[in-house]
């Protein structure tokens, strides 16, 4: 189990380190990174979410119960974070990074671990987790950005931001294609898949490039708050919701696993594009990626026992 976890986390850490090295060496020039972030946010990440949701195989799974657990635990967690806002961050922009660090997840690690533990059944359960959490956390994050990133927005403006957000649009298209059974056309599916596969490495390079940048809120408090919430509070909340709703077995374990994953590289891209504290977000991603090598074995040992 430890070898599987390290095999998924080490490449992520190396890509972050490579991004940092490329930035410090000036290999690609400063103009490359904003363009790469924009490409990732408006093209690659929407393609990733669209393809994953459109092609998810949910046959024979406890979809309703698992989705209910994941939605309820995510909403409870998000509410707790908002209530603790003053204690975890000194300003609104920094809080948006703590919030993303607390509720978003790295679906690459989740899918790899689920497949390694349960085989094809794990892949299917990971698809349910993605279908439930990805749209939810993107909507919640857009709402938090609209409220706390420095630009106070009306209800109409928040709804407009949600409807126009490329990540949410990608999720909506993917869900619509899956629900209707239309799927992605044979000639388009490989292109969308290839674009989505490019999102992870490019996003992690951008995360590494942002490390060391100066910004407010880079003290230990927001970093530790986001990580404590992600690796302790949210998994325990999910465990409690599983018990309350009667979800057990493999579905419950995968649900808890996905809520205990380090935050996603897309968090940094969203922070850059929506006025959050991007340097803080980059540091949260890097710290959680390293901590996950310690926390995930412990969490899986407890849940699989």
TrEMBL record:
It is a multi-pass membrane protein. This is AEC family transporter. Keywords: Cell membrane, Membrane, Transmembrane, Transmembrane helix, Transport. It comes from Pseudomonas alkylphenolica. Signal peptide: none annotated. InterPro entries: Mem_transp_PIN-like, Na+/solute_symporter_sf. It is found in: Cell membrane. The chain crosses the membrane at residues 35-54, 66-88, 123-146, 167-188, 194-211, 283-304. Belongs to the auxin efflux carrier (TC 2.A.69) family. PANTHER family: AUXIN EFFLUX CARRIER FAMILY PROTEIN (PTHR36838:SF4). It comes from the Bacteria. One of its GO terms (biological process) is transmembrane transport. GO terms for cellular component: plasma membrane.
């Amino acid at each position: 189990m430890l070898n599987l976890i390290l095999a998924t986390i080490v490449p992520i850490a190396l890509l972050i380190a490579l991004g940092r090295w490329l930035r410090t060496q000036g290999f690609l020039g400063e103009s490359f990174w904003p363009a790469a972030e924009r490409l990732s946010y408006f093209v690659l990440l929407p393609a990733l979410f669209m393809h994953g949701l459109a092609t998810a195989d949910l046959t024979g799974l406890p979809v309703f119960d698992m989705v209910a657990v994941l939605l309820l635990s995510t909403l409870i967690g998000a509410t707790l974070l908002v209530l603790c806002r003053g204690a975890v961050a000194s300003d609104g922009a920094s809080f948006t990074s703590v919030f993303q660090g607390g509720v978003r997840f790295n679906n690459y690690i989740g899918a790899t671990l689920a497949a390694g533990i349960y085989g094809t059944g794990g892949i299917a359960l990971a698809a349910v987790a993605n279908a439930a959490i990805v749209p939810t956390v993107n909507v919640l994050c857009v709402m938090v950005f609209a409220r706390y990133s420095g630009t106070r927005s009306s209800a109409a403006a928040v709804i407009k931001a949600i409807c126009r957000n490329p990540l949410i649009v990608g999720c909506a298209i993917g869900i619509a294609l899956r629900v209707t059974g239309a799927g992605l056309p044979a000639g388009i599916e490989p292109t969308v898949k290839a674009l989505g596969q490019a999102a992870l490495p490019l996003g992690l390079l951008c995360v590494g490039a942002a490390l060391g940048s100066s910004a407010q809120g880079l003290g230990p408090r927001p970093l530790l708050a986001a990580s404590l919430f992600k690796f302790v509070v949210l998994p325990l909340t999910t465990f409690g919701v599983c018990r309350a709703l009667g979800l057990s077995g493999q579905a419950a374990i995968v649900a808890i696993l996905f809520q205990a994953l380090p935050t996603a590289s897309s968090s940094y891209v969203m922070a850059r594009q929506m006025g959050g504290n991007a340097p803080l977000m980059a540091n949260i991603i890097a710290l959680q990626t390293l901590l996950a090598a310690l926390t995930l074995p412990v969490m899986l040992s407890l849940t699989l026992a």
